[in-house]
């Protein structure tokens, strides 16, 4: 079984459309994340979410909204897509914070979004 | 904001040689982690070193951490073609602040 799975793997859409990317983890982790990787491979945190708190990165436009129906799922909805949203979006999960900082992250395989 | 900076940006070596990648960061950390990303795939965790540790080994991997210099290095010994990938360092700061990743080092191991 895949630990962190996200769908779709590829998504091609027109500017102005609304799209969603789904993520599921079967590791029993309490914390899930969305990262964006640009064309230069730079990986940037967008959101982290656990049972208790949604942490929003202030640099993320409000067109991006995470939704978590339960602790095993964290979906990413994007409104009014723009050309600059083209990137690979990675979902990840980790165990809840322990003393010593965030531990190992488990990543999905990524969802490549292309906005035309 | 970006925390880690890997150096070099790209590295090309022959199979069997050792590969060393460096990471520098800006603020105090709780731990530092290294990840590998094969082309078109997700990131895979390699090793975690805590702020009170100086060196850690895992198979052919050796990681060092110098908190006074705010730097870490990843050494891959006896490299193989399968080690070809991008390698990222990531820092855990305080509390449950998400990991912050560097820009990565692209390693090419030529058979």
Notes on the structure:
The complex is a heterodimer of chains A (116) and B (111). Chain A is mainly beta and 116 residues long. The radius of gyration of chain A is 14 Å and the shape is globular. The model of chain A has no long low-confidence stretch (mean pLDDT 91). Chain B is mainly beta and 111 residues long. In chain B, the strands form two sheets. In chain B, strands 2, 4, 5, 9, 10 and 11 form a six-stranded mixed sheet that branches. In chain B, strand 7 and strand 8 form a beta hairpin. Chain B is globular, with a radius of gyration of 13 Å. The termini of chain B are far apart. Chains A and B meet through strand 4, strand 5 and strand 10 of A and strand 4, strand 5, strand 9 and strand 10 of B.
Structural class of chain A: mainly beta
The portion of residues forming beta strands of chain A comes to over 45%
Average pLDDT confidence of chain B is: 93
Helix/strand order of chain A, N-terminal first: EEEEEEEEEEE
* Major pleated sheet of chain B: 6 strands, mixed
Helix content of chain B: under 10%
Percent of residues of chain A in helical segments?
Answer: under 10%
Greatest chain-chain interface? A-B, 28 and 31 residues
**Which stretches of chain A are low in confidence, meaning pLDDT under 50 for 5 or more residues running?**
none
The number of strands of chain B is 11
Shape descriptor of chain A:
globular
Total helical elements of chain B = 0
What Rg of chain B, in angstroms, do the CA atoms define? 13 Å
Strand content of chain B: over 45%
Shape of chain B: globular
Structure summary, number of beta strands of chain A: 11
Mean of residue pLDDT values of chain A: 91
Radius of gyration of chain A: 14 Å
Low-confidence runs of chain B: none
Kindly report the oligomeric state of this protein: heterodimer
- Terminus-to-terminus distance of chain B: 37 Å
In brief, what are we looking at here?
The complex is a heterodimer of chains A (116) and B (111). Chain A has 116 residues and is mostly beta strands.
